[in-house]
Amino acid sequence: MTIPATMKAMVLTGHGGLDKYQWHEDWVVPQPGRMEVLIKVGACGLNNTDVNTRTGWYSKAVDEATTGSAYAEVNEDDPTWGGAPLTFPRIQGADAVGTVVAAGEGADAGLIGKRVMVGGWIRDWDDPDNKDKAGYFGSECDGGFAEYTKADARAIAVVDSPLSDAELATFSCSYVTAEGMLERAAVQAGDTVLVPGASGGVGGAVIQLAKLRGARVIAMASESKHTEVAELGPDLILPRAPDNLRVALGDEKITVVADVVGGAQWGALIGVLERGGRYTCSGAIAGPMVQFDLRTFYLRDLTFTGSTVTPPQTFANVVSYISQGRLKPALAATYPLQQLKEAQAAFIAKKHSGNIVVVP
What we know:
Elements (H helix, E strand, L loop, with lengths): L5 E7 L8 E8 L7 E10 L2 H8 L39 E9 L11 E4 L2 E2 L12 E2 L11 E5 L3 E3 L6 H4 L3 H13 L7 E4 L5 H12 L3 E5 L5 H5 L5 E3 L6 H5 L4 E6 L6 H6 L1 E9 L12 H6 L3 E4 L5 H12 L7 E6 L3 H10 L5 E5 L1
Parallel strand pairs: 10-11, 10-13, 11-12, 13-14, 14-15, 16-17
Antiparallel strand pairs: 1-2, 3-4, 3-8, 3-17, 4-5, 5-9, 6-7
C-alpha cells in the first residue's frame, strides 16, 4: 500500500486538562527504525495510564483520586508512571491494534499485512526482564492515538481472532495489567478473589482471568452495572461499597484482593482477607492515600504485592487466550479519534462498564 507522508493525530502538548490535546491533520507519519514496524491503526483503547499521565496524577505532589482534571500542583520531575519527566509533544494511546504496513531494518518483513496488537511495555530486548529499563507505549514513545504508529517488532503480537479491531483494543493494557496482578499474587484453583471496581477495564479482566485459573471470584460494582458485570462470569456480585463488607460477604473466605481502586474503602478490603491472604494492587483510582494498620498486616501473615511492569510472557499469554477464544471483550463505546476528548471524559465519568475505544 502507499503510505502517506502525513496523518491525523491527537497530540498531547503538556500536563493538564483535556484542553492539552490538540487535533492535527498534517502530523508527520513516523518512519520505522531498526527492528521496528509501522502500523496502520485500526483502533486504540483508553486506559487510566493515559489519563494519569496527562494530568500528572503520578506526581508525589498529588494525593487526590483520579479525576482527569488538572491538579493545582504537579512536580515536573515525577509526573509519569515511572517517576520521570515526559517529553512533549506526545501522542498517547497504549492499546493500539492495527495492520503492519512497513518493516524497518532487521524487522521481519513477513509481518507486513498481519493484524497485530501492541504490547504496552517498551523493553531493552538484551535485558527484557529489567524493570528499571522499561518504558510504556504512549508515554516514553508515541502511541496509537493517530492513523499510524510504530512499535518494536518484538513488542507486538499477531492475533488470529474473529473479533473486530475495536474489540481487540479493549484487551492489552487492562488484561496484561490484570494478568500481572494475578501472577504476582499466585492465584490458583481454590482461591477466592475479591475484585473492587469490577465494572472497569482491569476489574473485568481480573474476573475473566481469575476464572481461567479456576478461582472463585466475587465482584464489587455499582448496582446499576451488575447486569454487565454478570456477563463476565463472577460467582457473586456485591455493591460497590457495602456498609459492612464482612457482613455482605457472609461465609465467603477471601484469600486474594485484586485492587485498582484504593481510597476510603481500602481498610475494609484488607480487613476481610483470610490469614495468609494476599493483596495485589495496580492502581488507586479512588485515591492513593490510605490508612494502614500494621497490626492487621503482620498479625494475619498477609502478603502485599505491587504490580506494574510485567514479564514479556504476560502479554503473550493474554494474546494466546484471545486467539483461543477464551476471553470475552467488554466494549462499552467507540468514538472517532477526533472526539478523544469526549471519549476520555466519558471514560473518567465511569458510567460505563468495560472499555472505551477510539477509531481513526
